[in-house]
Amino acid sequence: MSAALEKLGIPCWHSFQLFSAHYGDNEMWLDILTRKFFSDEPYEPVGREELDQLLHSFGAVSSDPPAICFAEELIAAYPEAKIVLVERDIDSWYESYMHSIVRNICDPFANLVLTLERSYFRPIGIVQKRALEGWAGIRSYKEGELKAKDNYRKHYASIRRVTPKSRLLEFSLQDGWEPLCEFLGKPVPEEEFPHLNEKAWFDEKVKLLLRRGIKNAARAVFPWIFALVVITAAFWVANPNTKYGKTSS
Prior knowledge:
Blueprint lengths: L1 H6 L4 E2 L12 H12 L10 H8 L4 E2 L9 H7 L5 E4 L3 H17 L1 H9 L4 H16 L4 H22 L5 E4 L5 H8 L13 H41 L11
Parallel strand pairs: 1-2, 3-4
């Protein structure tokens, strides 16, 4: 959907903005996630001033985490905005969501990198984990299997409940350009409506992110490993009769 909006000349925020161009926003996203889901203090809904800082000059917001966690706040903060609710087959959505979001965030290896690498990968990973835990109540792949479809239904019901009908378009990607362009007041492009392989696209982005995290983690861990080797070697030299350093007499 974000590709279609871009084709219409509407810059669209999506979560991969936090991996590169707007990496610095992770700290602020984490702050408002903590306030909403993980604080003992009463939650005061995020308003337009803060959301403007996070969304910069984008003209649309994709329902990616962590933005999806603040869907109702976004609808309230931008009363002039139109809402496109993309209806999907729930089984198809579930397969994509579990593969792309839950599997990657709950992956043990990714979480190991998250623990070791503190300079780049960790801020991104923590925001995504907090979004999944706080908004979806999912902390493991098994919990995702149990809760994902119910979360989908609740989210769609919530959007329909809080959005005035005049601002809401219930849209299927198979509908093509016409209803979307009519709703947004945009001319219909001559090219075909974009249909991306979401799983492949997401997997490629995650691989690039994880690869960078692994490199940074290796750089962070190597000095400690080197120091341990040096200390161990020095100990053996100083104590040649230890179990592992004993020489024959």
